[in-house]
Amino acid sequence: MAGLGIQKRGTGIARVGLSKGTLPDFNKDGKITKADVLIGRGVIKKAKGGQAKVKKVMKEFKSGTLHSGKKGPVVKSRKQAIAIALSEAGLSKKKK
User: Is residue 94 part of a domain?
Assistant: First the structure.
């Protein structure tokens, strides 16, 4: 590695602000795992915050307060609720 604070693509893990010999915990699970190393190298993209939005919308659907618009009718279809959740989270449906 060139020097601390300088990160070139594919050269290793960014160690900005860490002491020598330590690795960052990108997953925030309390352990340094292979996934942390791959995220640091840029091989795996770190998850954004879409799952939290999907969880919130599906909770609204289960409680019966999810509407198909600001003042539209209450959503009764699970498939429609999933479509709304993914749309609001900015995600796409998984392929089979």
Answer: no
CB-CB contact of 65 with 71 (8 Å): no
List Cα–Cα distances, 61 to 14, 40, 76, 79, 85, in angstroms.
41, 37, 8, 11, 10
> Angle between the 78-89 and 50-63 helix axes, to the nearest 10 degrees?
150
Among 33, 47, 23, which residue's Cα sits nearest to residue 14?
23
- With respect to residue 16, please indicate whether it lies within any of the assigned structural domains: yes
Instruction: Specify the pTM.
Output: 0.48
pLDDT of 78 higher than 80: yes
- Same domain assignment for residues 5 and 38: yes
